[in-house]
Amino acid sequence: MKIVKEMEVMKGINGIRILKGMGMKKNRKWLFFSFPLFLLLFSFASLFFASCGKSFIDGGELTGISAPVWNEPNPHGMVLIRRGSFEMGSSKNDTLWGINQNSKGISVDNFWMDETEITNAQYRQFVYWVRDSIVRERLYDPAYGGNDLFKIEEDKEGNPIDPPILDWKRPIPSERRANEDELSAIRSVYWTNPVTHETKLDPNQMIYHYSVFDATQAALRRNRLDPERRVYNTDVKVDPNESIMISKDTAYVNEDGRIVNETITRSLGSLWDFLNTYMINIYPDESAWVNDFNNAYNEPYMRLYFNHPGYNDYPVVGVSWEQANAFCAWRTDFLRKSLDNAIRNTIEPYRLPTEAEFEYAARSGKSDRIYPWRQDGPIGDKNCFLGNFKPGEGNYTEDGHLITSRVASFAPNEFGLYDMAGNVAEWTSTAFLESGPEIMNDVNPQYAYNAAKEDPYALKKKVVRGGSWKDVAHFIRSDIRSFEYQNEQRSYIGFRCVRTQVGFVKGKKR
Length: 510
Ligand SMILES: [Ca+2]
Ligand SMILES: [Ca+2]
Fold this sequence. Notes:
The chain is an alpha+beta fold. The protein has a four-stranded antiparallel β-sheet with strand order 2-5-19-14. A hairpin with a 5-residue loop joins strand 6 and strand 7. Helix 3 runs antiparallel to helix 4. The longest helix has 26 residues. The protein is globular, with a radius of gyration of 25 Å. The two termini are 36 Å apart. The structure holds calcium ion (2 copies). One calcium ion binds next to loops. The site of one calcium ion has 7 residues, from loops.
């Protein structure tokens, strides 16, 4: 799938400056990450020009058109999971837990995976980007003084850009220097509780608007725009007026001012029918801490967990599957906008891992592992706990942590991944079916189901893997499946991203 449209455009070095502005520890590394890309961009572009100018003096022989291979730089905070095969699922029956042997041999290709779960600080970068895009829109809006310098209305050649795009290079004025209109635009994204008078960022306004072109659906033969090309069997008579029904996600604001995201089914008319649009409220549900646990005093977590700097490096929670997908789309766009056209679309998008990718990565690709570590239980050689979970009845703390822990508090697995068992359970892109892997292909297995709004709730289950801080040892096993509804927000579910690596095995030299 490919991101084709986003709310705003942000380019080059500006993306780096925004990151630095967030005051995050690791941001400086982006400079080193981006600079080689910048150089590569020139070499990549020159490669095209070189091939255009090539004269075909090849003696009439078939010599092929070749070009140097371009290697992707290592994405910040991710590790490369190399392609491989393993037995996915449980290899033995376990009558105590009602597990039936259900393993299946599968293979997955190379992908990058976040070393750790996405942290509060990382997710806040997304929330603040959305906040700033709203403020910039309003600074341009005549209702708030209409400063047209906040948008770029013409390109370098003086041609109009329609509609104009936000100028991220122009800083939002500080509250001290802002005029009255600017101040009201800046403050408009905050909300004051009329009872307690506490002021905070208004979660209801944090809407991220994005579109994704569904290249898989668009590629299916049955969905081809030209009816002649839907069937290759020349014995079958093609009906040129055949109507093909397709499902498409769309989002709009209804007459009551409410945002509606829904899946519509309609007759295929053009490539635009494969463009899915979403308007997602991306703010985490801080009240999950209270709603998940009856008769418990979890109010401090509700108030502090997402925003207190003490929790910066803890995994974000209270994020639904839909919000996690919005994060992946934003992260892709944020990176691509910092790259030149020539390489922008050679970078695969960030996404949630498939269920198979998660299990393969958790077990370090080894069929004989049931945890990310080699032991058959959660305790290591030196009698130390190997992850954050619930070690005993009512006992959450024996492993040193009551709720979540800072990410990477325990040793990584052989692939260099932290907390693949426990801490927070993690969303995958896979829709949950009891039969699961059985019906999936054995090459890059996946089962995706785009549930329509009117579908029964049972069809909106997504696979969650790895178990969490609130689970006993059995449920943090890497071969155990679990699910949650795609719009649920839980205090024990977070996520991490993956990205398919554009990588090749070197061939034999001739
Ligand atoms: Ca614990
Ligand atoms: Ca985890």
